[in-house]
Specification:
heterodimer; A: 137 residues; mainly alpha; B: 56 residues; 3 helices; elongated
């Protein structure tokens, strides 16, 4: 399957998932918010949503639906932890992430979400350009 | 486990499937999108905005 076609298909699934979640729980999908609220959440739909994501990855792994050799991740654990912390801090400061702002927010025509999405995309583009320039990535 | 939780779990499974199928679970794909000045991979654009795929 052409990569852009599978990307589009994946996007459709993500969109359907977000609509389904909104319809059944009345809340929008925002993964960073869900994770941030984990310490205080008690078997809420958000927790089960996150479990669903993890489960899908586990199933894909078990049944070999995904080629795991294609996934490239740095071996540097320290770097991963630092990056994770940065993502956590950044998404809380921005009150959302790609799912909350990028998908749900923009779909609801939220100006705030559009600003947030453009900002983190721009930041990402800048960082990648700089790392390419310095030959880091 | 009540109904809302089951629906949420299924939504999560669907969301995860979307991430996997779209290739967004692979960091290289995401970086490819951000690499505007280099090897640009527009996949993320298709994921987020459902741009219709025309042609081959």
């Amino acid at each position: 399957m052409h990569p852009y076609l599978s990307a589009w298909l994946g996007g459709v699934l993500i969109g359907i998932a977000c609509v389904a979640y909104l319809y059944t729980t009345g809340k929008v999908v925002g993964v960073s918010g869900m994770i941030a609220r984990l310490p205080t959440t008690k078997a809420s739909p958000a927790l089960w949503f996150l479990l669903g994501i993890l489960l899908s990855a586990l199933l894909a792994r078990l049944f070999g639906w995904i080629d795991h050799n294609a996934i490239s991740l740095t071996d540097n654990h320290v770097l991963l932890i630092i990056a994770g912390v940065l993502v956590g801090v950044g998404t809380r400061l921005g009150s959302g992430c790609t799912s909350g702002h990028g998908i749900c927010g923009i779909s609801r025509l939220s100006l705030r979400s559009m600003v947030a999405t453009v900002t983190f995309m721009a930041a990402g583009i800048l960082i990648v350009a700089v790392t390419r320039l310095w030959g880091l990535l | 486990m009540n109904k809302a939780q089951i629906y949420a779990l299924m939504a999560g499974l669907l969301f995860g499937a979307g991430l996997l199928i779209s290739g967004m679970a692979n960091p290289a794909k995401v970086i490819g999108f951000l690499d505007v000045f280099g090897a640009f991979d527009a996949s993320l654009a298709f994921v987020m905005r459902w741009f219709l795929f025309l042609g081959n």
